[in-house]
UniProtKB/TrEMBL annotation:
Matching Gene3D superfamilies: 3.40.630.30
N-acetyltransferase domain sequence ranges: 96-148
UniProt protein name: N-acetyltransferase domain-containing protein
InterPro entries: Acyl_CoA_acyltransferase, GNAT_dom
Amino acid sequence: MHGRYLIRPATLDDDPEEVRALLQPVDFLDDAMPEEIIDRMRTGWQLPPQFGTATLLLAQEQPAGPLVGLAHAIPPVQWLMEMQAGLGRPLCLLLSRALVELEAVSVADSARGQGLGHQFVDHLVRSYTRQGYQAMLGGIHTHKPHLASYYEAQRFHVLSPGAPLVLQLPVGQIQWPADASMRHLARPLVPRVSYRAGVLNGLLAGPSS
């Protein structure tokens, strides 16, 4: 709960049109993603447990007002499954329960400047940390440079445009795919994971692996 707003998980009863309006300003690399998120909400879809947890949060004016914000996070399952041939399925499944991607944070104009975006990120960080996740990844478009300082204030490391993020694993290194129009974000969620000079170290190391 955040003052006049309630932050909660999306439900089958939420209005797809309100959610679609909140997703419209978000720059997805995949144009089909907004409708996919809405379809998941409408059908009650959940990620199979072996792949981890997907989360769609909504912010609503109290007590039963309109939706004014959303946040969506999901493990990078598609990318990891593409890595199966090289890494093996068991390691990819471990990574899908260690890495989560912050895909979208959106706040309506009427609710901006009140800390809702930070509340969304804090909520997701707490939730995924409790579930044993080790790092949160994300990306921002280079044509929105103001977002760099916003996410740095949220304890994310913001990479240079187009720079790959290297993930150091016990078996070696892999690269989170880079795009010239994007800047990677990385935030360790546990003390043994750290970031330095483009490398996220310590993933899958220690007792929880």
